[in-house]
Amino acid sequence: MVATAVGGIPEMVSDGETALLTAAGDPHALAGVLARVLTDKAEAARIGAAGLEASRTRFSVPSHYRSLLPVYERLTAGGA
User: Fold this and answer.
1) All structural domains of the chain with their residue ranges
2) How far apart are CA 7 and CA 40, in angstroms?
3) Model's pTM, two decimal places?
4) In terms of C-beta density within 10 A (0-12 exposed, 13-18 middle, 19 or more buried), how is residue 19 classed?
5) Which of 5 and 80 is assigned the larger pLDDT?
6) How far, in Å, CA of 80 to CA of 75, rounded?
7) Comparing 32 with 79, which gets the higher pLDDT?
8) Burial class (CB within 10 angstroms; exposed 0-12, middle 13-18, buried 19+) of 47
9) How many other β-carbons are positioned within 10 Å of the β-carbon of residue 22?
10) What are phi and psi of 22, to 5 degrees?
11) CB atoms within 10 A of CB 20
12) Range 2-79: architecture per CATH
């Protein structure tokens, strides 16, 4: 993943591990990161695999369910 570091994106990925982030509004920096991905196939594969694994473990339906279940349990306990 190549993205700009805006909004919640930096909270969802780890720059250099599961994605490559660049500053918003800097087309030269974005071009540099894209060129890096296109020329360094090993790094692109490593980051892509790490990003896929992170998305499976952190953002899957079962993971989402496990994170929300305690919230619903707390909200329904004792009418709170």
Assistant:
1) 2-79
2) 27
3) 0.71
4) buried
5) 5
6) 5
7) 32
8) buried
9) 19
10) -140, 160
11) 21
12) 3-Layer(aba) Sandwich (3.40)
Paired tokens of 25: 């509004």
The residue-averaged pLDDT of 52-63 equals 88
Residue type, 8: G
Structure tokens at 22: 């660049």
DSSP 1-68: -EEES-TTHHHHS-BTTTBEEE-TT-HHHHHHHHHHHHH-HHHHHHHHHHHHHHHHHHSSHHHHHHHH
| pLDDT at res. 60 | 86
